[in-house]
Every structure is written in C-alpha cells, then in structure tokens.
Amino acid sequence: MILQDLLQFIWSAVRVPLPVQKWSDLVSENTQKEGKPVAIPGHNLPLGTLGVFILWFCWFGFNCGSTTAATYSLGDIAMTTNLAAAAATLVTLIVTWVRYGKPDISMTMNGALAGLVAITASCDVVNDYEALFIGAVAGVVVVFAVEFFDKVVKIDDPVGAISVHGVCGALGTLFTGIFGEGCSFITQLIGFVAVAAYTLILAFILFFVLKKDHRTSRNREGRDRRTGYARARMQRLCKLPLPQ
Hints:
9 helices, disordered N terminus
C-alpha cells in the first residue's frame, strides 16, 4: 500500500511537466485568444508560507553576512531587515484586502519578499524608521507591479519575480541614495541604469539566438507522441490505474 501511494505520488509529480513546453499549454485556447492572464494557484499555501518564513530567517545571515566582518552594526542590520519585511508584509496584506475584497496570502508572502529585497541595499546605512518606510513602499509597489506585468505588459511571471526582485530591488537601490548615510542618489541611479542596460541587452541577445536555434523548439505532434510513450511506460512499470 505504501509503495502504491509512493508510485502514485511520483507519477502525479512528473506527469504534468511532460507535455508542457510553455505556460500557455496550461490554459485553454479560448483563454489564450482572449489574452487574459490565468493564475495557477499554489497547491499548498501553508507549505509556501513556511518557505517564505525560512527565507526570511535566512535573510538575516544574508544581510548581516554581507558585511564580511563581525562588527557592532550586525544588530542594527538585522533590525532594519526585519522591520522592512514586517512593514511590507502588513501593508501588502492591507492593500490586497482593500483591492480584492479579501486578503491574498500568496501576494502577502510576495510582499514579505519585496520588503526583504528592498532593504538589502541599504540595510546598514538607514535607521529603523527609514527601514519601515522602505518596506511599506515596497509592499504597495509589489501589488501593482505584479498586476502591471501580468495585465499590461503580458509577461508570463507566475511567481512575480520581476516585481519582487526587479522592481523592488531597483526601488531599494534608489532609496539607498536618498536615505543612506554617505550615499549618493546619482551614483545609485547610474548603477541601476548600468545593470539594467547590461541585463536587458545580454538577455535579448541570448533569447534571440535561442529563438533562431530550431533545436530548442519542439512541435506539438512530436511532443504528444513522446508523452504518450512515457505515460504508457509508466503504466506498465507501476501497473496502477493512473489518473487521466
């Protein structure tokens, strides 16, 4: 019985990625034609929340460890890190509650990450109140950034990584120049523009080359045939009534 449950679990884990080559394969053709984003909710919100809190805890080592030296400022860095994340979490919870009529747990967890990302650049050069402000702003921005990339730009970003790490990371970099003691806004702005330009240009070249390389693309007929073979082989190995 245990072996049967284990094999069913393994099959349920591997059966979905086999025919999927792009995210649009997971939505209906009618939805694709309408051009509306379709959310793919996480299957286990408590487990996802636990993952965020583990990441939150590890962020103390990330920010404090970035000083590369055991100094008296480690406590201050840990405090600003925690305050920004807490402020972002609370603000995102409130914003989603007001905007959607109920609190959105997954977006709230994204808010926590947005606060952590936003405070990283300035964690050692801002005070507690400034950290609260940076986190609160990130908590608001991440909600609208996710909606913007999903609905306006129509970029497929299932977990909101662009909004959390890109938008809120840039926001935190610029806030370092505004609030950071001994930091220059112009310097931070130049650094942001330079990194953004380098990333966009290099990514464009890379994906342009991959698009022209036909070895990276597969036709649907061949993909369905290979999927059918894999499914039949799994059925023979397991000898189980697998889900359709």
